[in-house]
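Researcher: Let's try something more involved. This one mixes different molecule types, so please make sure each is placed in the same coordinate frame as the others.
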Amino acid sequence: MILVKLGGSVITDKSQYHAVRLDVLRRLCEEMTGAEDIVVVHGAGSFGHIMAHEHALAGGHRDGSQIPAYAAVSRDVRELNLMVLDAMIEAGMSPVSLPPSAGITLKDGVLEDYDTGLLQSYLDMGMVPVIFGDVALDSVQGFAICSGDQAMERLAKELSPRRSIFVSDVDGIMDRDPAEQGAELIGAITPDDLDSMTFHARVKDVTGGIRRKVESMLAMCSPGMDCIIINGNVPGLLADAIAGKEVRGTRVKVD
Amino acid sequence: MILVKLGGSVITDKSQYHAVRLDVLRRLCEEMTGAEDIVVVHGAGSFGHIMAHEHALAGGHRDGSQIPAYAAVSRDVRELNLMVLDAMIEAGMSPVSLPPSAGITLKDGVLEDYDTGLLQSYLDMGMVPVIFGDVALDSVQGFAICSGDQAMERLAKELSPRRSIFVSDVDGIMDRDPAEQGAELIGAITPDDLDSMTFHARVKDVTGGIRRKVESMLAMCSPGMDCIIINGNVPGLLADAIAGKEVRGTRVKVD
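Model: All components are placed in one shared frame. Result:
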């Protein structure tokens, strides 16, 4: 089984509200066509983060004014999800959407139980389950954010994929802010590297930014599992990564 | 708690593929605004029935050609659902969508278990859970149709609403085909009336047509529960029915 995360930063323009990068999204879906036994997770990007941040939804339910915001965010991420479904169907895939707000409960912001029975049934039937960054209920704080990365982490544990691919808008994890001159790609990261690294948040991201992403990738890796972050703006990389070829990117490894 | 079913025949044009009746949908949402403790179920109408019928999805999984159809139908009903969410948000409601294909399993075409815990949590938080006619997994036949009426029936049993309102495109149940001259509204129906009645299917409806709807309404009624079918094309009827006023329609009663 292969897990693919289409990052919100690559399929949307995170600096603008409701801006999908349709050409990139369509190409990435075409690159996934033909892959068997695949689960797709996509970020919420500009469809979720901006409003979720404004109304502090990640911190839980504090007042009634957040309720319309919860409704709006869950609606907005469904709009993006519909575009992803469309791009997948156009590319010849058979997706089925499983929104976290309709099936997952968190505990203090952390995904605890995740019943993957339904998802597995869809996989067995030859379909492509699609999960996405969404708001979701929380047994302690009322509600929270279920990021695409959190869903990836849990799915990696539950489904033991042979390969997990994070499709981002950078070549991988860089040794400094990618906007800085001389930034270089780190080919591989282990848990020991994490503390010596610096991370930068250039845009609003209610899910914790790059550091959280690397931590999440490390948490989901297990020995022998192929876990890689690649640049979705480079045509062909995703198809190659799915096929198991060596590609430019950052491999995350645990011993 | 009040259960409202927005029939596929009133919010879409069932004779045309993908035709929403946006003006009616928006007005009906405005009529629901302000109602507390409300759950909305909507039909799939022309977004679900036509393709589900063509590929015999209701009969279960027979061959691989149905898989892209399952994906397409679940995608199409989500497009309609997004329009319903938009109309509800515009009217000032805070909806959250709970798609059957992402959370319910049927057994031989019949909805068996329905965990309403998530739905109840959303209600308690002041949101409006929205369920809709959808494809769904089936433990015996692979997949099946979970009609809006099936969802209504089960929700009525699980949630014991004080009122269940079916918003249709006719005044109620007529004593003959509504297209025939002299058709008269039946003010009330009991289980004993069912066998003496004739039913007509004027348009394709994979969920079983009017007879199934009446049976479903009878099955979900319990003594003292207000269960009524009204015409959604008549402005004000839904608002009055929600407020508990006497309205033109057919009341379904059990002793």
